[in-house]
Amino acid sequence: MDHHWVAKAWLSDVGLPQYSQAFHNHLIDGRVLNSLTRRDLERHLNITKKFHQALQARRIQCEHQNADPLVWTAHRVMKWIRDIDLKEFAESLLNSGVHGAVMVLDPTFNTDTMATVLGIPSSKHMVRRHLVEEMKTLIGQASPKARNGRDLSCHSSYGSLPREVRDHTPPRAEGSPIRGYTSIEVTNV
């Protein structure tokens, strides 16, 4: 976030375009924006209204809450991916078009789609399972109407052996104990 974007786009988006010139003159970029205190806002940028100063504090609080994924930008989704310990896959979201509204509202978007976009190989079952649990928690916080009853749970292949191993498993012998037990014996085990 360079100072041009902060001064023009961001201030306009949050309803405070009157401070655009001061932010531009002081070269306030995203990094500086995160470190501004109320005193800095008042002394250097002439933001004297307490409500306008509070906006900055609230923005910082919002950055660290997973409250409403519906309105997340692609960069906020990337931050969430880093926060759930999948930082090595976060950069894959650049230019992917995945943002909060897609995650919550698109009925075809599920954990498989997210794993594919992130570039998580299908052989990394534990990583995919972790993503499933985190997405269930996150999307579960979104309104039930927005989810449209979608099942975000993992598919059966996540909990079992990989397909290539299952396909090469030899068939059971005719006298195999599995085929020889009756249902009564199995329940007594």
TrEMBL record:
The lineage of its organism: Eukaryota, Metazoa, Chordata, Craniata, Vertebrata. Residues 143-189 are annotated as: Disordered. This is SAM domain-containing protein. Residues 10-66 form the SAM domain.
